[in-house]
Amino acid sequence: MSTIHWVTSSYSNGDGGGCVEWAPMLTVSGVVPVRDSKDPDGPALAISAAGWRAFVAGFKAGEFPVHL
After folding, report:
1. Can you tell me the distance from the alpha carbon of 67 to that of 8, in angstroms, rounded to the nearest whole number?
2. Does residue 50 belong to any structural domain of this protein?
3. Are 28 and 16 in contact, with CB atoms under 8 Å apart?
4. Strand, coil or helix: 18
5. Cβ 52 vs Cβ 32: under 8 Å
6. DSSP for residue 26
7. Which strand ranges, in their side-by-side order, compose the sheet holding 31-36?
8. Fewer Cβ atoms within 10 Å of its own Cβ: the N or the C terminal residue of the chain?
9. How many domains are there within the chain?
10. Residue 66 domain-assigned?
């Protein structure tokens, strides 16, 4: 997945912690790759597009505690 264009979440903080990246160009296949930007050679999660939308909506609604 190293040739994929990764985008850092706008909710990631700027000091190197809490950095989530996703690959928007692959959402057309119904899967959203998500990874930790601090470990770009590490594993990526493959989340269904519907699951990713639900996660983002829940995060924006404050359903998840944030510990940065």
Report:
1. 18
2. yes
3. no
4. coil
5. yes
6. G
7. 7-8, 20-22, 31-36, 44-48
8. C
9. 1
10. no
CA distances from 21 to 17, 60 (A): 12, 16
Residue 22 belongs to domain spanning: 7-60
In a domain, 16, yes or no: yes
Whether pTM exceeds 0.70: no
Locate the DSSP E strands across the chain: 7-8, 20-22, 31-36, 44-48
C-alpha 42/C-alpha 57 separation (Å) is 26
Please report, as a single letter, which amino acid is at residue 56. Answer: V
Is 14 a domain residue?
yes
d(CA 12, CA 61): 16
